[in-house]
Amino acid sequence: MHPMGNPRDHFWLTIGMSKAVGANLGDALRDGKLTQRSYAEIINACRTCDNPQGCKHWLDQNPSATAAPDYCRNKTELAALASS
User: Fold this and answer.
1) What are the tens digits of pLDDT across the range 44-53?
2) Are 42 and 25 in contact (CB under 8 A)?
């Protein structure tokens, strides 16, 4: 297991990925679809990714997508939030 990534960097990667797939984390938090704890868990899941540079590249190439890449630690959660 490698060390977790920088919280700030992964916060912005998570925000970018959520926007790319059409999931608004702020709205989900406000509407009760996401708790503060689950929001933090999403960020921490991103922090365990061993490919943040690949994620940055993917986001540059896919500003709007139907789904996060398969390697995304939050693919399932973001898909659920995008469809709700």
Assistant:
1) 999 999 899 9
2) yes
